[in-house]
Amino acid sequence: VKITDKEAAYITDIWSKLDKKVTTAHALERVFTVYPWTTRLFKSFNGHFKAGDSGVQGHAEKVVGALDTAVLHLHDIDAGYKKLSEKHQLIGVDTQNFKLLGQAFLVELAILFKEGFTPELHEAAYKFFLAVAGGLSSQYH
Ligand code: HEM
Asked: The complex's ipTM?
């Protein structure tokens, strides 16, 4: 996935306007609810998958950290995601799940920005999460 300069500008702008942890926690709740098999590896959450639950909050913070890195390196996300990709393979996360979380994020952005979530912003955000999913999958073998 190649992110253009214009898309990069949109992505940086959207990311700067978000309450990142709140939005990420909501995206996690959404992915866990809509695609319940994504909860499989989160035994430590003891069945609590709402945005406000402590397991989800703690995980949201980690995901935000990784997304911050991606936003800072939009033209080479893979490079910064080597370790994280290895880790996800080791844990046994199916790469399809990365795309599902991306879809959940897009819905959260639409809810937040409403009419402001133009097709152009949607396209840029879609490519961002596609690139993130690519980075997280890059070391799978
Ligand atoms: C752990 C990022 C998507 C499952 C982590 C960690 C980060 C992270 C930063 C902590 C790594 C560490 O402790 O060294 C991301 C990002 C994602 C993503 C940026 C996409 C935007 C997913 C998805 C799943 C998943 C979709 C599964 C449905 C896990 C699991 C752990 C983990 C099971 C270990 C949790 C634990 O026991 O602490 N992820 N992740 N990740 N991730 Fe992801």
From this structure: 0.96
Q: Whose CA is nearest to atom 40 of ligand 1?
A: 63
Compute the average pLDDT of residues 34-40.
97
Ligand 1: residue whose CA is nearest its atom 39: 63
Decide: residue 103, CB within 10 A, 0-12 exposed, 13-18 middle, 19+ buried.
middle
CA 42 distance to own-chain centroid: 16
CA-closest candidate to residue 3, choices 110, 99, 132, 97: 132
At 55, list the tokens. Answer: 């397991």
- From the alpha carbon of 42, which atom of ligand 1 is closest? 33
The verdict on the CB of residue 82 being under 6 Å from ligand 1 is no
